[in-house]
Amino acid sequence: MNSKIIFIHGMFQNPKSWREWVSFFEATGFEALAPAWPLHEGEPSDIRANIPAGLGNLTLAEVYGHFHTLAAAEPEPPVVIGHSLGGLVAQKLLADGLVRAAVGIASVAPNKMLALDWGFLRNSASITNPFAGNDPYEMTPELFHRNFANALSRTDSDAAWEAYAVHESRQVMRDILGSDGEIDLSLPHNPLLLIGAEKDEIIPAPLVRRNAHAYEDERSHHEYKEFNGRGHFICGEPGWDEVAVSVSNWLEGHLSAIRA
Question: For residues 205 and 198, is the Cβ–Cβ distance under 8 A?
């Protein structure tokens, strides 16, 4: 396969979170790249120590516009794989007809789809808190373990926080509930795979499943797959390679069908 994959990281992460995935998919024959969101370039520990000026004002429209420009500039439509908020960006690129296929892992859902799940409500309220203004949300080791890497031991979670976590704009999360978080789910689209993580405290697996089944066009392929025992850090915790193999196999089948 000679398609290009663009990986899209989620909130509180940056391209470093895709390092192993980029190597894996390059070894299977893809050209792969993992661009940073605006204001997310560099080593995570440096970004935490020196919060980029303007991070608190970063919007979903700016994040989406960044990847829209990248995808539109490709000579052939790429594949996109997004985690969390990156999964919503991947779905929006798919809806705009810019990609050959999209995969959303523990993906934020469009169209104000919410979950009556305590972890989801707790995290959403904490991040979007209007009384915090536009101060960036600081991801601590404690919060990372409780919400992001709850399937890991505290020791392993702290190591993952040190290696991968960054602070984040609250505004990006707030924008999900506005017009920038909307997708017309009735329209035809290229193949879409959404993956849920059973123990996810941020984007509950039932919400990801509901997102997948909300697509209405019967001629278009939209599929849901769930991995047991995984948290929101599914792309970085042990067993990430099992998820990557599953995605690779799905892409092989669907990209072959598109070519045919």
Answer: yes
C-alpha 63/C-alpha 95 separation (Å) is: 16
What confidence tens digit (pLDDT) does each residue in 132-160 have? Answer: 678 999 999 999 999 999 999 999 999 99
At a CB cut-off of 8 Å and minimum separation 6, what does 228 contact? 198
DSSP designation for 179: G
Residue 12 domain boundaries: 4-259
CATH of the domain at 203: 3.40.50.1820
pTM of the full predicted structure? 0.94
- Lowest mean pLDDT across 4-8, 146-150, 195-199, 256-260: 256-260
For 121-146, the DSSP string reads HHHHHHHH-GGGTTPPBP--HHHIII
Phi, psi of 80 (to 5 degrees): -125, 140
How far apart (Å, rounded) are the C-alpha atoms in residues 217 and 188? 6
Going by C-alpha positions, the residue among 144, 152, 120, 133 that lies closest to residue 230 is: 152
Number of independent structural domains in the chain: 1
Comparing CA positions, the residue from 74, 79, 122, 125 lying closest to residue 104 is: 79
Least confident window among 32-36, 38-42, 92-96, 134-138: 134-138
**For residue 201, what is the enclosing H or E element?**
none
